Structures are given as structure tokens and as C-alpha cells.
Amino acid sequence: MIVIDESGCGTSIDLPAGDTLVVRLAGQAATGYVWVVEEAGGLVLSDKRYVSGGDRPGAAGYHEFRFEAGEAGTHVLRFKRGREWEETAAGRCEVVVRVR
């Protein structure tokens, strides 16, 4: 399993076939901003969840996405941060994943 966070945005990584990639992007659910997957290429999204950073209401945490390496090749993961009712993105993250 390979785990990356915001520091992995804008980078390329190698993922062995059959392995899992976990992407953790900081967020604060109480603000209405959420991260969503815009594109996953040949990677398969197997789970997504929000993990709170504390037990106080409104505590910052992170959005976690788990992907399984599907077909071999180069795939682009694209994420967008925003509110459902707004068209403009408040943030973006892109990671190039090479499945070997």
C-alpha cells in the first residue's frame, strides 16, 4: 500500500499491479467543501470516507480515497475541492500513476 497526501499533488508515482493507493486530502467537512474524484483513469475507487481530526464538532480532518491498481499503464488521478452548489473549484489535485 502506498499513501500520499497533498504533497503528492503534481507528482508521478509508481504503483505495482495489484497494490493499493491511498490519497488523503485535508479538509473540514463542516465548511461544506469536499474533495471529489474527477478522473481515475484505469484505477478502481474501492473506498472513500472523511476522517475527522478530533472529537470536537468542526474539527479539521481529511478525505481519504482508496484505489486499486487496475490495468497496467499510465493513469491520471484528478481531484476537485469545492461545494456542491458552486461551480468554481476551490482546489485541485492531480497525480500521475504508473501501474507496472
Structural account:
The protein is mainly beta. It has a single domain (2-99), classed as Immunoglobulin-like, CATH 2.60.40. Helices cover 0% and strands 57% of the residues. It has no helices and 8 strands. It has strands spanning 2-4, 12-15, 20-27, 34-39, 44-52, 61-68, 73-82, 91-99. The strands form 2 sheets. The chain has a 4-stranded mixed beta sheet with strand order 1-3-6-5, with no helix packed on it. Strand 5 (44-52) and strand 6 form a beta hairpin. The two termini are 14 Å apart.
Number of domains: 1
Number of strands: 8
- Largest sheet features: 4 strands, mixed
Taking all residues together, what is the mean pLDDT? 93
What attributes does this structure have?
mainly beta, Immunoglobulin-like, four-stranded mixed beta sheet
